[in-house]
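Q: What residues go here?
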């Protein structure tokens, strides 16, 4: 397999609004990030992915951009950003910026022009339609509830918005719009950044004519993915973007691509003619959802099984290695609940189970991502009141289902507590002081009350902390080529408590054993694996007995062995 710097790297995601507030206005900012670069260096990560820091009215916390070449006032100035890049490069850290070009903000100058008149030169930068019989042009539902169309008085037409109505979709069919995107990419690349994370990049091409979605539920609006997920001209647009822009720089790209299969994954990331370095797939993020509707994420399936997760992860691991593609490995980001609360135990076994999840993820094939606070084992939050949640997705969802009278409000609040994106967006826990050391002022969103027990200051110098464990995992990647390049094989396929797999490179083998339960299952070494001289590389308990035959695991135990 071809060697690339981004395969050997670990990426750390920063959600700037919630990371560190340097000027005490309650909002994280660029200078706050600069203050913490030594922390990131100590952790050992190689790349930082910054969620959007561009000018934005913040309808969707920066994923609605009103100027692609300016920094949001609340976050600082372009000089601050230049200094951030310089300080990162001085420390050998790389910077990946978020590229949000499926849509802009409705406050972008292009849209202000576009909506003025039907013959405005910017009209075709967006997707306009007169509608059908006084109603929306089609039945598509928005990702964030309600119709994907908004009526606009000025020209008496509708515009498409797959996300909020303040995020109008850009019209990629228009070559002028595509050139604008390539220009803004060059603007940042020429400043010296090291790559892009591409927001919902696989929905930029829509089926011509924008036909109705198939009716599969009794809701007024239907999921229209068949008409825009990996749409007809998606690959063509991406090839053009690579030829005109990306091929001229040594950068990494990670496509955020909902609803893709491993076959798509290979198509998008393979060494020969892929369109991005790696991608974020979502199948494992849906393992605990109820399928069948776009609102499935809120309907938690309490009966999801470890074997479901094994099937998904193994399919991706094996397909990508056979097709010479490359995986991103993630359990958290700014859109997902905290992994220790979701997949492990944020109570009695908080610490060991957070370490277990980290082991399981970091030993797979692909580039691991750590989302801010994950390295401390930060947990979900359970706000009492709806007003304490700030996310537009949460509020739209609540309005849609509760105010239309279809669901019980307390049930919906529970769904929000379990799955809402704000679980990941509470301020970072730096210490046990005021507002967890994030800010002296009241933060834009409440701090998780457990910050006195879970915070960086207490963990950085504790060799047994979740943080120190992450540090060691990241080091293992630097020390053992097999962690990066070894082939993955699942073992104990049917076990519902133990997730175990091997990695193989030449005549070297790693054995990864993780217990996803609070019980004490017995690990049986499969025939053909030689456990005679195992060398323990890392574990989340003190291990005295290294015999692998009939090994009784402790709750949420994790061990990685190198087999001779
Ligand atoms: O979070 C989700 C569902 O709860 C996803 O469907 C999410 O909306 C989707 O993955 C796209 O996410 C990205 O684009 C959105 C933005 O709100 C997210 O924060 C971003 O990661 C629109 O730009
Ligand atoms: Ca601030």
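A:
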């Amino acid at each position: 397999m071809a060697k690339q710097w981004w395969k050997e790297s670990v990426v750390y995601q920063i959600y700037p609004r919630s990371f560190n507030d340097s000027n005490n206005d309650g909002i994280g900012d660029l200078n706050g990030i600069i203050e913490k670069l030594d922390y990131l260096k100590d952790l050992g990560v190689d790349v930082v992915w910054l969620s959007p820091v561009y000018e934005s009215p913040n309808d969707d916390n920066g994923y609605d951009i009103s100027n692609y070449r300016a920094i949001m006032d609340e976050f600082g100035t372009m000089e601050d950003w230049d200094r951030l890049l310089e300080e990162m490069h001085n420390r050998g850290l790389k910077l990946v910026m978020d590229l949000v070009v499926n849509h802009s903000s409705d406050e972008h100058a292009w849209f202000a022009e576009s909506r003025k008149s039907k013959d405005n030169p910017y009209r075709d930068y967006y997707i306009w339609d007169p509608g059908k019989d006084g109603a929306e042009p089609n039945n598509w539902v928005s990702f964030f509830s309600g119709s994907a169309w908004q009526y606009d008085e000025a020209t008496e037409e509708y515009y498409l918005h797959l996300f909020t109505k303040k995020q109008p979709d850009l019209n990629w069919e228009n070559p002028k719009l595509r050139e604008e995107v390539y220009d803004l990419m060059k603007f940042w690349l020429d400043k010296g950044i090291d790559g892009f994370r591409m927001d919902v990049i696989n929905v930029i091409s829509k089926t011509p004519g924008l036909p109705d979605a198939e009716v599969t539920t009794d809701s007024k609006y239907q999921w229209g993915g068949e008409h825009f997920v990996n749409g007809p001209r998606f690959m063509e647009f991406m090839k053009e973007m690579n030829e005109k822009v990306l091929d001229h720089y040594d950068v990494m790209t990670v496509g955020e691509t909902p609803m893709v299969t491993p076959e798509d994954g290979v198509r998008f990331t393979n060494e020969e003619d892929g369109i991005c370095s790696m991608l974020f797939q979502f199948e494992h993020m849906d393992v605990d959802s109820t399928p069948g509707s776009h609102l499935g994420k809120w309907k938690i399936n309490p009966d999801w099984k470890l074997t479901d997760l094994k099937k998904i992860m193994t399919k991706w691991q094996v397909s990508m290695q056979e097709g010479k593609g490359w995986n991103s490995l993630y359990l958290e980001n700014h859109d997902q609940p905290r992994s220790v609360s979701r997949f492990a135990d944020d109570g009695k076994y908080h610490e060991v189970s957070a370490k277990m999840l980290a082991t399981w993820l970091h030993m797979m094939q692909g580039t691991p991502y750590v989302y801010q606070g994950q390295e401390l084992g930060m947990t979900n939050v359970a706000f009492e009141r709806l007003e304490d949640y700030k996310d537009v997705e949460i509020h739209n969802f609540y309005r849609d289902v509760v105010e239309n009278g279809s669901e019980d409000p307390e049930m919906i609040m529970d769904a929000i507590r379990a799955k809402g994106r704000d679980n990941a967006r509470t301020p970072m826990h730096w210490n046990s002081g005021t507002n967890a050391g994030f800010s002296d002022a009241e933060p834009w969103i409440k701090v998780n009350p457990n910050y006195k027990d879970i915070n960086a200051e207490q963990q950085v110098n504790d060799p047994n902390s979740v943080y120190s464990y992450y540090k060691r995992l990241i080091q293992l990647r630097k020390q053992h080529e097999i962690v990066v390049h070894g082939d993955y094989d699942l073992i104990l396929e049917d076990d519902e408590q133990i997730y175990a797999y091997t990695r193989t490179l030449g005549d070297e083998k790693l054995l990864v054993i993780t217990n996803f339960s609070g019980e004490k299952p017995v690990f049986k070494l499969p025939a053909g694996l030689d456990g005679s001289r195992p060398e323990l590389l890392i574990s989340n308990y003190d291990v005295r007995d290294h015999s692998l035959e009939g090994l009784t695991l402790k709750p949420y135990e994790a061990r990685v062995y190198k087999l001779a």
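A: Context that may help when evaluating the design: The two ends are 23 Å apart (CA to CA). The first strand starts at residue 11 and ends at 14.
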